[in-house]
Structures are given as C-alpha cells and as structure tokens.
Design goal:
321 residues; five-stranded parallel β-sheet; alpha/beta; inorganic pyrophosphatase (n-terminal core); Diaminopimelate Epimerase, Chain A, domain 1; six-stranded mixed β-sheet; 11 helices
C-alpha cells in the first residue's frame, strides 16, 4: 500500500477542491470509505475544500454525516475521489464526470476502467481495508477516533465480521491499526448487527416467505405492502439478505425489494453465494459486484424471473463440473 499512498498524496496535494464520491444505494464500506477519506483529508489539509457528494441513503450502521451541498461550478477544477464503485453508472452523483481529474479507490473486480488514477486491489476484503493501510503509511500516529470508526464499520460490514474468503492477514493488520484509536469494537458491532424487535419480526416474515428452487436457489420478493407494514425503507430492507444465509442447502440466495421509479414498480436485488460466481450474472441485469456477493437494480418482475432462471442454470452447470 506504500505505492498507493504515494500516488494518492502526489495527486491530492495539487488540488484546492476535492470531492469524494461513493456508489448509489451505499453500504457501510461505501459510506465508511467516503467519510473516512473526507475526514482524513480535512485533517491533513485544513485549508483545502474537502466535500462529500451523494444522496444520503438509509443504511444500518453508524451515523454518517449528511452529504455536502455542492454547486455545479465547484466540480470544474476539482479532484474527484471515487470510493468503492466498480462502474461509472453507479457513482452517486453523475457530476463526477465534470471533475478535472479522478482517483478511484476500490476492491471490486475491474470491469470499467474509468478514472485517471486507479488505486484498485481486487484481493482486498473492502475499500476501507485499502484506505486503512494507506493511511497507516501516511499518518504515523493513531487515526482520529471518528476516521477509525468509519473504516472499521466498513471492514466489519463488508467482511461479515471477518468471515468471507477475501479476509487475509492484511485485513487484520488494518483492523489492528484502527484499534489503536480507542474505538469500541463492541459499539460498532452493535450498530451494525444488532436489531430492534420490529426488525426481528421483519426478518421472521422474510424467512417465512422464502421460495426455494430445486436447483438450490433460495429467494424472497419483498413488496411495498410488506415494507410499509414494518416501516422499512427499501435501502435498509436489502441489507437483510443475511436472513437467508448460513443454510447448507442454499447454494445461492437473493432478496428483491420492490421500489417505485417514475410511477413504475421495479425491483432492486442482492445476490449471495456459497461458491457459485454470481457477479457476471448481475452484470447483465443493471448491476455488478464481487464473485460471491452482487447487486442488481431497477428490474421488472419479468427480469427478476429471468435472473432467477439464470442463477439456477449457473448452479446446475457448476454441479456438472
């Protein structure tokens, strides 16, 4: 990460306005990496204008700042830093293209080579891991508590408490560095993974409505009536994909959330897998992500059916191998 850190600083120092972006429908890795970068740069360069872009979406986790109000003219001579975003369509504020130069910091598989400086490591467990190790080379002292909390939330969330295959010794090096900042892991864990009684009931209803395909696919479709019943925001509801996990017989599992877009009912979805690669399927359905964890957006109900069929075909083909 020394090379990444050097490249990062060499570009940042030349700009007076820096705007940091994340992906749409952000998770904790997206928000954590964005606001850790904003806060860290404000610490290093108090005279520069450092801004965070995007619509503030509801996410289960720690409290993140609201996005800054940014005028069109501010993008023109700015450096844009895009965190945790695999393709340009998913940047949460398409005005990023007006920035004079773009740095991308990400851990997703590379499908879209947009940006001028690419600080991408597909082997990293999270973008927050990349940033923590970069910051360690730049900032000798322990990070400010708030910066460390943002990064730790992203790491814990994206790795599902250090349980996914991409977790490595570097992941724990990053976590070890962050714990020097007097953060309380138990508090961060509670913010990310504890839930209310209403959420408990919602999770039970999800599980009672699971549909199972003979191929080993399990999925649930959440309509707006169910969301309203539990006062659940669609962007928050998709995070309960974990309710279908850890079942040996479920080789791939998915959740599809009904949303309204310009008066039409469409569906955003999350896909997870034990070993079957699903991001190449998501790429064909307005989405993308990691091999075993991906997302799709704005699908019709017919497209949801098509995606389910493709997943089943992929599971079956993997079994034949």
């Amino acid at each position: 990460m020394i090379k990444f850190a050097d490249q990062f600083l060499s570009v940042v120092k030349d700009y007076e306005t820096i705007i940091v972006f994340r992906h749409i429908n952000p998770d904790n890795d997206a928000l954590g990496s964005q606001w850790a970068t904003v806060s860290f740069l404000r610490l290093l360069f108090p005279k520069k204008q450092i801004l965070g872009a995007g619509l503030h979406q509801i996410v289960k986790g720690i409290d993140y700042p609201p996005s800054d109000q940014i005028e069109d003219y501010q993008f023109t001579n700015a450096l844009g830093i895009i965190c945790d975003t695999a393709n340009h369509e998913r940047v949460d504020d398409q005005r990023f293209s007006q920035c004079k130069s773009i740095i991308r910091i990400d851990h997703h598989p590379i499908h879209d080579l947009f940006g001028d400086v690419l600080l991408i490591n597909e082997q990293s467990s999270s973008t927050c891991e990349i940033l923590a190790l970069m910051f360690k080379h730049i900032y000798i002292d322990p990070l400010p508590k708030q910066v460390a909390q943002y990064l730790m939330a992203g790491i814990l969330s994206d790795t599902i408490m250090f349980s996914i295959p991409s977790v490595s010794s570097k992941t724990f090096q990053a976590a070890s560095y962050l714990t020097q900042s007097e953060i309380k892991l138990s508090d961060i864990h509670a913010s990310l993974f504890h839930y209310s009684e209403n959420e408990f009931v919602f999770i039970n209803e999800l599980r009672s409505n699971i549909k199972r395909s003979p191929c080993g696919l399990a999925y649930v479709v959440v309509n707006r009536a169910m969301l309203e019943k539990h006062n659940m925001h669609p962007n928050k509801a998709k995070e309960y994909i974990f309710a279908l996990s850890q079942v040996k017989e479920f080789k791939v599992w998915a959740i599809f959330i009904e949303i309204e877009v310009e008066g039409k009912s469409l569906y955003n979805g999350s896909l997870r897998s034990q070993s079957v690669v699903v991001n190449n399927i998501a790429n064909r359905f307005n989405g993308g992500g990691h091999p075993l964890a991906a997302a799709v957006k704005h699908l019709t109900l017919y497209q949801v059916t098509e995606l389910i069929e493709e997943c089943c075909q992929k599971i079956i083909s993997e079994e034949v191998k």
